[in-house]
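#struct-pred
JK: can someone run the complex with JFB? inputs below
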Amino acid sequence: MMKRAQDSGAVALHIHDLRTWTEDKHHVVDDTPFGGGPGMVMKPEPIFAAVESLRDDKSRVLLMTPQGRKFDQQLALELCAVDHLIVICGHYEGIDHRVVEHLVDTEVSIGDYVLTNGAIAAVVLVDAVVRLLPGVLGHEQSAADDSFTGSLLEAPQYTRPAAFRSWKVPDVLLSGNHAEIAAWRKKEAIRRTRQNRPDLLGDQEL
Ligand code: JFB
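RT: done, structure tokens with the ligand placed:
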């Protein structure tokens, strides 16, 4: 998807090594934390130099961090309308907080689990945003139909064969009755959402 999006001109992706913006012989980007504690913290100077050399007035600066705003489809839709995203991917235990306070527009977390570095999270964010760009998916209706754009999970899907190891595809899907199929899908979507993601149904808790 990313390759085709780039080839079609829908998006350009550039990956930068922060060490490019260091001035010391060993290209050091981290240091020990003030006040003590385990691990290393990313120094502010290379990050400020990198972002200030890359940004323009249409840029939005994101920082991948476990402390960020939870990434969801709503944020993906918001970000796909931005001309230029700069995604800072940290490593180590953390990042000098002056970066957060004076450089970053939005701190983003892809979920409540702990990764080893921000680049893994950035791949997830970029994938979710790029597939929303005009012309990337090809079949334009699907992005709008997806789970989470509405408030229900998608209904189960089946393809041939109609019987596999004695497990049969629901008769209604073979009936050709489009109104009945739509009603069945809605019922199954609600069932699945109640089972796997009751939080999406809100207070009614069906
Ligand atoms: C993102 C990261 C680390 C501090 C740092 C940079 N959902 C997510 N979980 N973990 C990350 C994330 C996002 N987005 C994440 C950037 C960095 C984790 N680390 C490692 C681990 C624990 N505490 C460094």
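RT: quick notes.
The radius of gyration is 22 Å.
The chain has a mean pLDDT of 94.
JK: thanks, will look after standup
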